[in-house]
Amino acid sequence: MLSKIALHEVAGSNARLRTALSAADLATEDIEDEGRVFFEAVSGDGQTIGYAGLERCAADYLLRSVVVLPGRRGQGLGRAIVEATLQQFGGGEVYLATTSAAQFFSTIGFSEMARAEVPAPVLATRQLSSICPSSATIMKLTRPPT
Ligand SMILES: CC(C)(COP(=O)(O)OP(=O)(O)OC[C@H]1O[C@@H](n2cnc3c(N)ncnc32)[C@H](O)[C@@H]1OP(=O)(O)O)[C@@H](O)C(=O)NCCC(=O)NCCS
After folding, report:
1. What is the domain range of residue 24?
2. What is the distance in A from the centroid of ligand 1 to the CA of 36?
3. Count of domains in the chain?
């Protein structure tokens, strides 16, 4: 079903990353801060299909900036980008905050968490402490991606 995808690390200052996130209404305010790593996902035919990022939060990570370019959505590529990105992290738990894609992330193995159960370093990220609305759903990877 899926063509193979490759991830290439890009800087937070990458203009195409910023454009893709802005077009999807995802946060760009903090992408050039320290402690984040971003990946450009490229399909087997060399086309950029989307982006994702990981932000270190003490022992854990925040998965963030997940976007599939318009026109490439609904083909399993979002799932493939998330699964490939999760292979890049080195231990700890993975959290995320989303206002619109909780159902998508639940198909990959994330489960909703109460804020009270989320570690302080994750809550202290700019995403969770100020950029995302307090109504955002916080999720944690609770089973290996399928
Ligand atoms: C959310 C997003 C990344 C999904 O990418 P995608 O390539 O369309 O998703 P996939 O095709 O890989 O879908 C994987 C699964 O999630 C489901 N899914 C995808 N988007 C969904 C949505 N908006 N609501 C409910 N389910 C969704 C699919 O049906 C599929 O389920 P299945 O495996 O049971 O068939 C994409 O729509 C996007 O870039 N949106 C804008 C940015 C955004 O909201 N990012 C997430 C915020 S952090």
Report:
1. 5-141
2. 23
3. 1
